[in-house]
Predict the structure.
Amino acid sequence: MLVNFKTMINEAVDKDYAIAGFNVFGYEDATAVVRAAESLNAPVMLMTNKVAVDHMPVEVLAAILCKVAEQAKVPVCVHLDHAKELGLIARAIKAGYSSVMYDGSQLPLEENIKNTQEVVKFAHACGVSVEAEIGSVGYSDQPGHEQSVYTEPAEAEKFAEETGVDALAVAIGTVHRMQVQNANIQFDRLKAIQQVVKMPLVIHGSTGITDEDLQKVASCRVGKINIGTALRLVFGNVLREEMNKDPEAFDRVKLFQKPMEKVEQEAKHKMLLLRCKDVLSKK
Ligand SMILES: [Zn+2]
């Protein structure tokens, strides 16, 4: 079923697990992620980033992903990740997304607050949940494009109070699109933020977190952990293997079977680290 993330994320914090937010790019990976969530009896988020919406109009993505979510046996949230334009957010909401992230992290604090307030007003009126970012999680493949700035607890407190968002993304040591798991997580900073911000927090760029730290983060009352690169690596690498195995192969439906299977396994592996096993039956 399609849901927004407000109830999902608060319940995760209360029951001591974290929601997995996976970046997906179409039907194949979305289906694989939902199968993983169903096999674990846990809720999940399907997220689309700028790369995805540049490739496929947000209305088309919404039609596919919302249908996949509606048909799922577990709660699924369809979320627009890192939107910087209010127009795109409005289109996504109109098309059926149940959740949006406004990313004003590169703007001065007051401007970020003002724009986020506007998104919250519009989105909440439509029953759509809102995530925003304070501090900034940079990108490993675009150095200098977006600056990396650790979240300051006092700024996070002010931002959370003034904007009324449902969840807050914070920068505590991760970087987007890391291909190896060697991020240095600042648990002290996380704790300091949580002392002044009571709403669920979100960690981006989590492919770069070691399995051990991922388990630790999930037990620190973090609401959602975003994972993108890990699934993209699996899909691309397995597809390459399949094509190399049979150089004559051309049928994409057949070629996609193995990558979908492996993406499902990887999503399940990450969800288990986030303690997402059988959580829907847990009281
Ligand atoms: Zn992100």
Observations:
- The chain has one domain: 5-273.
- Residues 243 and 249 are 7 Å apart (CA to CA).
- Residues 82, 137, 176, 204-205, 226 surround zinc ion (CB under 6 Å).
